[in-house]
Amino acid sequence: MEQQQAYWLTNVRLERGYIREGAEVTGTQTGLAHLRIENGVIAAIVDAKEQWTEELPRVDGKGLLLLPSFEEAHIHLDKTYYDGPWRAVRRSSSIFDRIEEEKVLLPKLLPDAKRQAESILALIQGYGSTHVRAHCNIEPVSGLKRLEATKLALESYTGKISSEIVAFPQHGLLRSNSVELMGQAMSEGATHVGGLDPYTVDENIEKSLHTMIELAVKHQAGIDMHLHDGGEAGKQTLLELVRLTEEAGLQGQVTVSHAFWFAGAEKQEAEKMASRMASLGMSVASTVPIGRTMMPLPMLQRVGVNVKLATDSLTDHWSPFGSGDMLEKAGRFAELYGYSDELSLSQSLAAITGGVTPLNAAGENLWPKVNHAASFVLVQASCAAEAVARRSERMAVWYQGQLVSGSLA
């Protein structure tokens, strides 16, 4: 990054600690501060009550709450109806029907793929996200064309958002003979190896997972696999993935997206699986589904699995319900699991920030600190708990010291 001129961001509201009545947290103590921003990091933090004479440009934060910027952990940028004519989802009886529909639809969507991906990036950034993990179709119908469109869209946001790209074999890694294509995608910019339901779609759990692992090891990449399978198929898939993760030395580099097996698993069995995953630093990316599928996300967090909230489909042929708003997603998470008290609401923020919260559960200040990246959101709220509960308005978004969305005018 090129050298930035230093400046002060003044009068921003920071969380200082929790207010307690006995053992219960009943509120959040905040105070105003000035931040000196230099070369993409927070170079100094000064209490607003103190006097300082350093002559640098100043941007008035107007008393707005400063929160760490958000992460979009799983979204499909490359195939979308967003910023195009409205279309609802067509009825489908199976994932295979949807794949057949997609084979016809994808070539029609391709000409607008870059433009629509850029529109999604603008949307999610306006909501406060400064990091995105994009799942990108890699299959014979599209070849590497959707990867190219995704890369071009992300390149147009260089210096505004950080990104990862999952090479996603939507039509089946083995079923669609996409192994060679996947290897090419990994050589041409994808950062993670994807996968899809090794039992239902690829019909061979071991071979599908072994192929994913081999690609990841060869390209020194992580893994992010879609897993919708429940029951014994989902269980055996997770058991084998856990075993291979440890065997290949991929600790901390494997994410299971959706992981719906946990929703129907017996409690003790689910906790045992989750503990094993946590010991290997595995993550679960979840859209916080509502309805028939109720994920035990609090249990996963409690045993140490890194739970990351995500949009998945913004609006496309799979689902029309995505908003791209990670703070709304955190609010849904809190609402669904009964996190209505100050402490639980405040700590819910961790699921959309890569684990970063202004305060830890004990009320100790963790963020921001000097030398932290100057990537944050200014929010119209009194504290993180209010921001999560009320999905408070995002006024301005910074990425590495630069204002990238919104305004303080």
UniProtKB/TrEMBL annotation:
Superkingdom per UniProt: Bacteria
Classification via CDD domains: Bact_CD
InterPro entries: Amidohydro_3 (IPR013108), Metal-dep_hydrolase_composite (IPR011059), Metal_Hydrolase (IPR032466), Metallo-hydrolase_Enzymes (IPR052349)
UniProt entry keywords in alphabetical sequence: Hydrolase
Stretches assigned to the Amidohydrolase domain: 116-404
GO MF, any single term: hydrolase activity, acting on carbon-nitrogen (but not peptide) bonds, in cyclic amidines
Name assigned to this protein: Amidohydrolase family protein
Gene3D superfamilies: Metal-dependent hydrolases, Urease, subunit C, domain 1
